[in-house]
Write a structure and sequence with these properties.
Layout lengths: L7 H11 L4 H8 L3 H8 L8 H14 L4 H7 L4 H10 L10 H28 L3 E3 L58 E7 L3 E6 L5 E7 L4 E6 L3 E5 L5 E5 L2 E3 L5 E2 L2 E6 L1
């Protein structure tokens, strides 16, 4: 029997000592810490939380074979909280002893992960880019078809390429030479970028006017080709698994890669 003139914690402490149980014995049986037992016996329920403290007192009272309802009534906690414990804590009261600690730990881990993600994103957006001069495109060989020169001193156009088609006879250009397919840089100074993706990778490319040509995630096995006015500023994620060519010439991304992101200017 408990003495109603004593506080809830004092009644529990008195009953424990009467049954020759130590604080460590009770903590071990209830799966609590000795500090939590001391807080209960000293009526420091605020440090345990109003809901958890009622569950701890209930289990403590049952362990000592005391009237748990009488002790809970003496705690003067709102009935709604007690009813909630009656429903939920039937089988899991003991396991909640460390729930507050784990909730705080999980919350801290989530905050750290979000902060690191935002920090890496800002670093990637603001880090200075490196400039690399891409290999100049090889000039095609002069056309071998017959040429009717407009003037004795007129040179062949530098972008002419051999004509491999058969008759009918091709039409003559204004300079008198046979028209050949223009190189990527012939039309308004445009150049061509080709990319192949061995694994998923993010790509963002802008042209000489700072106009964004592309900004998206590509998946493994995809290819992409872009034409624009150089120089190009490129940011390529997962660069080790991306192949880049500029006007048909491969560009080595290794020298411009930090961590897994390549940053470079192609001109």
């Amino acid at each position: 029997m408990s003495d109603a003139s004593l506080s809830v914690g004092a009644q529990l402490a008195h009953a424990r000592k009467t049954q020759s149980l130590s604080v460590a014995d009770v903590a071990n049986r209830l799966k609590l810490t000795p500090k939590q037992i001391d807080s209960i016996e000293s009526d420091q329920f605020d440090s345990l939380g109003p809901v958890f403290s009622r569950g701890f007192v209930r289990n403590y009272a049952r362990l000592l074979q005391l009237d748990d309802q009488q002790l809970l009534a003496a705690m003067q906690t709102p009935k709604a909280a007690a009813d909630d414990l009656t429903i939920r804590d039937e089988h899991i009261t003991i396991s909640r002893s460390l729930s507050q600690y784990w909730l705080k730990l999980i919350g801290a881990v989530i905050i750290v992960v979000i902060a690191l993600t935002l920090g890496v994103y800002q670093w990637l957006r603001n880090a200075p880019t490196q400039t690399v001069a891409a290999p100049a495109p090889t000039m095609p060989a002069p056309a071998t078809a017959p040429v009717v020169a407009s003037t004795p001193a007129a040179p062949l156009a530098p972008v002419m390429a051999p004509v491999v088609s058969t008759p009918p006879t091709p039409a003559a250009t204004p300079t008198g030479s046979i028209a050949a397919p223009a190189s990527p840089t012939a039309a308004g100074g445009n150049a061509t970028l080709d990319l192949r993706f061995a694994k998923d990778a993010w790509v963002e490319i802008t042209d000489a006017d700072k106009k964004r040509i592309v900004s998206r995630l590509y998946h493994a096995g995809e290819t992409a080709q872009f034409t624009g006015q150089p120089p190009f500023n490129a940011v390529i994620g997962n660069a080790a698994n991306v192949s880049l060519s500029y006007n048909g010439k491969p560009v080595d991304l290794t020298a411009h890669t930090k961590v897994s992101v390549a940053r470079l200017t192609i001109e």
